[in-house]
Write a structure and sequence with these properties.
Strand content: over 45%
Radius of gyration: 14 Å
Shape: globular
Number of strands: 11
Helix content: under 10%
Structural class: mainly beta
C-alpha cells in the first residue's frame, strides 16, 4: 500500500527552469519527511534535497544549492522540486521518496522506504 508518482520531467535547454511534482497515493504524507534524488546513467543515486515532515527544515546538496527549491503541500499530498538555472548535464532520472518513519528525520538513504518510478530530465547545451 502506498505509491509515489513523479511528473514534470522533459527536455530543456541549459539555463531553463522546471518544476517536478511527486504525488503520494495511499500513503500518509503529512507526517513523513520527503526527499528528491538524482541518478545519471551508470552512476549512483544521490540525494539532492530533502524536507522535514512539517516543511520547517530543508537540506540541499551543494551542487544544487541556490538553484533548486523543495517544497510541499500536505493538503495535496504533493512535494515539489523547483529547478532553476539548469546546467547542461545531459539526462538524469529524478526520484522522490518518503521517509519510512513518521515525525522523524530522514537521516540516510535507507530511511526512505517509499520510492517513485522516476521522471526523466534532459538538459541540453
Amino acid at each position: 500500500q502506498g505509491q509515489l508518482v513523479e511528473s514534470g520531467g522533459r527536455l530543456v535547454q541549459a539555463g531553463a527552469s522546471l518544476r517536478l511534482s511527486c504525488v503520494a497515493f495511499g500513503l500518509p504524507f503529512g507526517s513523513r519527511a520527503m526527499g528528491w534524488f538524482r541518478q545519471a546513467p551508470g552512476k549512483e543515486r544521490d540525494v539532492i534535497t530533502r524536507i522535514s515532515w512539517s516543511g520547517a527544515s530543508t537540506w540541499y546538496a551543494d551542487v544544487v544549492k541556490g538553484r533548486f527549491t523543495i517544497s510541499r503541500d500536505n493538503a495535496k499530498n504533493t512535494v515539489y522540486l523547483q529547478m532553476d538555472s539548469l546546467k547542461p548535464d545531459g539526462t538524469d532520472i529524478y526520484y522522490c521518496a518518503a521517509n519510512g518513519d513518521t515525525y522523524g528525520a530522514a537521516t540516510s538513504m535507507s530511511s526512505f522506504c517509499y520510492w517513485g518510478q522516476g521522471t526523466q530530465v534532459t538538459v541540453s547545451s
